[in-house]
């Protein structure tokens, strides 16, 4: 018995990877995601390797996972992959407090983010 298999959401020439609960704000993560959007995967990996942003290491890991999914699960050619989509979502926010003067309190917000990367195989035109 069991549940019926869900239909594939992506096209046949696409693969994706999702990283949840990254410990950075969505605004900071979106700066790095914008940097790789629309580029070939080897160029995007090089950009992330030499980026000075702390979160670039986690974005690179997610991109490598999407490339591995494309190669192993969907039999796509790694050399013709581009980063079709890279988008960021909000996750939970931890609330912390810092004591301040005269009995007041300072609010500290520690946000988390989700990252989704979709890679697509494109035919190269000569």
Provide the residue-averaged pLDDT. Answer: 95
First CA to last CA: what distance? 50 Å
Fourth-tier CATH superfamily name: Ribosomal protein L22/L17
CATH domain class name: Alpha Beta
CA gyration radius, whole angstroms? 19 Å
CATH architecture: Alpha-Beta Complex
Number of β-strand runs: 3
What is the domain tally?
1
How much beta, percentage-wise? 35-45%
Low-confidence segments: none
Kindly state the percentage of residues in helix.
25-40%
CATH topology name: Ribosomal Protein L22, Chain A
Q: What can be said about the biggest beta sheet? A: 3 strands, antiparallel
Strand order of the largest sheet: 1-3-2
SS content category: alpha+beta
Run of helices and strands: EHHHEE
Oligomer classification:
single chain
Number of helices: 3
Shape: flat
Please provide a brief summary of the model.
This is Large ribosomal subunit protein uL22. The protein has one domain: Ribosomal Protein L22, Chain A (Alpha-Beta Complex).
Description:
GO terms for molecular function: rRNA binding; structural constituent of ribosome. Belongs to the universal ribosomal protein uL22 family. One of its GO terms (cellular component) is cytosolic large ribosomal subunit. Keywords: Ribonucleoprotein, Ribosomal protein, RNA-binding, rRNA-binding. By secondary structure, the protein is α+β, with helices and mostly antiparallel strands. It has a single domain (14-121), classed as Ribosomal protein L22/L17 (Ribosomal Protein L22, Chain A, Alpha-Beta Complex), CATH 3.90.470.10. The chain contains three helices and three strands, in the order βαααββ. The protein has helices at residues 26-36, 41-49, 56-72, and strands at residues 14-22, 81-99, 105-121. Helix 2 (41-49) packs antiparallel against helix 3.
């Amino acid at each position: 018995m069991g549940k019926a298999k869900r239909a594939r959401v992506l096209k046949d020439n696409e693969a994706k990877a999702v990283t949840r609960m990254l410990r950075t704000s969505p605004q900071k993560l979106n700066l790095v995601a914008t940097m790789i959007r629309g580029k070939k995967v080897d160029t995007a990996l090089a950009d992330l390797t030499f980026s000075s942003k702390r979160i670039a290491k986690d974005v690179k890991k997610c991109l490598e996972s999407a490339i591995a999914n494309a190669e192993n699960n969907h039999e796509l050619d790694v050399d013709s992959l581009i980063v079709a989509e890279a988008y960021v979502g909000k996750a939970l926010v931890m609330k912390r407090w810092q004591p301040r003067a005269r009995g007041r309190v300072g609010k500290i917000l520690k946000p988390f983010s989700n990252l989704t990367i979709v890679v697509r195989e494109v035919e190269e035109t000569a």
